[in-house]
Amino acid sequence: MNKINKKHFIFDVDDTLTDSYEFNQQMFVDTFSPYLDLNNKKTDQYLRDLHFNNRGTSMQSQFEQAIQHFSLNQKPSKLVHQNEKLHIQNVDEIKVFDAVKQIFQKIKSSDRKISICTNRQTKSLLKILKNNNLENHFDNIVSCSDAGHNKPDPYCLNQLIKKSNQPKKEFIYFGDSKTDYLFAFNAGIDFIIIDHYLNQKKFYKMIIESFM
User: Fold this and answer.
1) What are the pLDDT digits (tens) for 40-74?
2) What is the tens place of the pLDDT at every residue in 76-118?
3) In the CATH scheme, what is the code of domain 8-18+95-211?
4) Helix, strand or coil, per DSSP, at residue 19
5) 103 Cβ contact partners less than 8 Å away, ≥ 6 residues apart
6) Which of 112, 82, 102 is nearest to 17 (CA)?
7) Is 70 exposed, middle or buried (0-12, 13-18, 19+ CB in 10 A)?
8) What radius of gyration, in Å, describes the C-alpha atoms of the chain?
9) Is 113 in a helix, a strand, or coil?
């Protein structure tokens, strides 16, 4: 990590720090249980495909697509709220990937800053960090959704950079999706896109063991 000559490391959360894809997909599907027959295989599969094909995008936009597809008489904001409630109730199931804490310790040992900038809402986000003993590792924790500017809109990332009083060349963003790539690109900062699921969920562990 010493070879990444940056002063500020910014991370996405879901599927970047946490092994949460299957959990998030199930919570998305379960949100529709009062309105759709989820025992219908076509319905269930449509929702899972929609969630997969929109990885990294806001829950608002995903619910809007599903509502339109099924002609539901529901407000997207209501479903977003219900989805967040499900997350808070069940979020204890979410764990971080191997060696996340070691990566953070390595970054901090070289006197660099670490922040989170994610579409996940604040309440469930803070619960995940607390459950995994990570809440004290970050200089900034930003929910773009709660700020009203979902990724890839770079607003909240630009605000974080502005607040730091550091030039953009000192920042690097870590994410897992095309949305994260566009997010960092739109803000004009460098980025690394990680796919843990192509690396047996051990990307950070491999980095620690191989290069640190």
Assistant:
1) 999 999 999 999 999 889 999 999 999 999 999 99
2) 999 999 999 999 999 999 999 988 999 998 898 888 999 999 9
3) 3.40.50.1000
4) strand
5) 1, 204, 207, 208
6) 102
7) middle
8) 17
9) strand
